[in-house]
Automatic annotation (TrEMBL):
Domain Fibronectin type-III: 117-216
PANTHER family associated with the record: INTERLEUKIN-27 SUBUNIT BETA
Signal peptide annotation: 1-23
Pfam families, sorted: fn3
Gene Ontology molecular function: cytokine receptor activity
Protein name: Interleukin-27 subunit beta
InterPro entries: FN3_dom (IPR003961), FN3_sf (IPR036116), Hematopoietin_rcpt_L_F3_CS (IPR003530), Ig-like_fold (IPR013783), IL11/IL27_subunit_beta (IPR053073)
Organism domain of life: Eukaryota
GO CC aspect terms: membrane
Keyword tags: Glycoprotein, Repeat, Signal
Length: 218
């Protein structure tokens, strides 16, 4: 979604949230030109609940979060949001001359949750055709017993100059044996994580691990 005011265009993207009582980063706005400020109101579909208003903060150009010196990233932190609750996000951009434009979007935490990628991916040969792939859950997913994860495995290889890939899963455990692979062929393995019931989005893929199966028995 986007908010446009004169020569100012603000692109708004919902970001990853962390379930539980932790703060939730929900907004990323990229400003390109002009003098303006952003107001964010969050309306909650609960009776007797006051409107929550939060002020966006600039991330200064040149920081790790800014892609170029001509851009500034904005973010808002909305603490203590609840599960199973409808929220309406009202983003208003106001120029120095007083012109304004607003954009509304609705969300529930369950619909936008996105875990971080799994970590510590390990690939071990079992014999000349089988591999064991193991990994650890993302350390930022602190409520694993309340909100378990499921996983997918992506492995790729080159065949006559063409990249081929297979996506397997979902798996509920953190290790999988892969069978029928080709000895001597290099493979690239990655794992992603998703909330067990399929709520929200799958994580980004983990860092790739490259392994070649030995041609001789171990």
């Amino acid at each position: 979604m986007a908010v446009t005011v004169g020569s100012v265009c603000v692109a708004v993207t919902l970001l990853m949230c962390v379930l539980g009582g932790q703060a939730v980063d929900l907004l990323r706005a990229k400003a390109t030109s002009g003098s303006f400020y952003i107001c964010v109101n969050v309306f909650v579909s609960e009776r007797n609940r006051p409107t929550v208003t939060t002020q966006c903060q600039f991330i200064q150009p040149g920081s790790a979060a800014s892609s170029s010196s001509s851009e500034q990233l904005l973010h808002c932190t909305l603490p203590n949001l609840k599960l199973l609750t409808d929220y309406i996000l009202n983003v208003t951009a106001v120029t120095a001359s007083g012109e304004s434009s607003s954009d509304l979007s609705s969300f529930m935490l369950e619909d936008i949750v996105k875990p971080d990628p799994p970590v510590d991916v390990r690939v071990s040969p079992l014999n000349i055709r089988n591999l064991l792939v193991e990994w650890s859950p993302p350390p930022t997913w602190t409520n694993l017993y309340i909100f378990p994860l499921k996983y997918q495995i992506l492995y790729q290889w080159e065949s006559r100059g063409t990249t081929r890939s297979i996506n397997l899963g979902p798996f509920e455990n953190t290790k999988v044996e892969l069978k029928g692979l080709t000895p001597g062929r290099p493979y690239l393995f990655q794992v992603c994580a998703m909330e067990l019931l399929g709520l929200g989005k799958c994580s980004d893929w983990s860092l790739p691990v490259k392994v070649t199966i030995p041609r001789v028995k171990l």
